[in-house]
Amino acid sequence: MIYRKLSVFFFIVCFSIPLKGLAQEPTADTIPKKDSVAKPIVKDTVKGKIYSPKKAAIRSAILPGLGQIYNKKYWKLPIIYGALGTTGAVFIYNLSNYKDLRLAYRVRYNIRVNNDSTDFEKIEPQLLPLSEESLRFNRDEFRRNIDYSVLIFALLWGLNVVDAAVDAHLKHFDVSPGLSMRIKPGYSEMAGTNGISLVLTIR
Predict the structure, then answer these.
(1) Count of beta carbons in the 10 Å neighbourhood of residue 40
(2) 19 located within any domain
(3) Are 51 and 168 in contact (CB under 8 A)?
(4) Where does the chain have alpha helices with state H?
(5) Is there a single domain that holds both residue 73 and residue 96?
(6) Is the pTM here over 0.70, yes or no?
(7) Are residues 125 and 195 in the same domain?
(8) What is the rounded CA–CA span in Å between residue 173 and residue 7?
C-alpha cells in the first residue's frame, strides 16, 4: 500500500516539472531581440504617406516634373518646363542658324576653291551679303552656342532630379504652428550686446 502511494506521488512529481516549464511565461531573456536600428522613413505629417527620395529622383530623371508631382509640389511644374522649354528653344534656334551658315560657308568655299556654284541658290537671302570669313566666324559661334545650350539643358534636368530627391527628404520636417520665428530687438544674451536678434521658438 505504501509502495503504491509512493509510486503515484513520484509519477505526479515527474510530470508536473515539465508542465511547469511549459507554462512558464516568457521573460525578457527568452524573447528574441529585434533589430534596434530602425530604418528611417519620410512621412507626410498630414496624410501619413511615405515619400521615397529614390523614387522621386528616378521619376524626375525619366520625365522632368514627375518627381515633383510625386511630392505634390505642383507649383514647380511651370518653372521646370519653362526653364527646359526655353533652353530647348534656344538649342533649336542655334542649330537652325548653324546649318544655314555651314551650308553658306561650304558653297562660298567651293566657289572660291573649286569654282563650283551648284548649291548657290540654297543659301539663305540674309546670308548672301556676308563674306566667307564672316560666314565661318558665325558658323563657329553658333556651334559653340549649341554646345552651351545642350550643357545648360542637361544641368537643368539634373537640378530637377536633385530638387525632387531633396524635397522628398524634407517632407518629414516639422512645419507645424508650434514653430515660430520672429525678430526681437534688445539685449542678446548670446552675443552680449544690444541689437536685433532672430529668435526661433519651438512650442
Answers:
(1) 7
(2) no
(3) yes
(4) 2-23, 53-62, 66-70, 77-113, 132-169
(5) yes
(6) no
(7) no
(8) 72
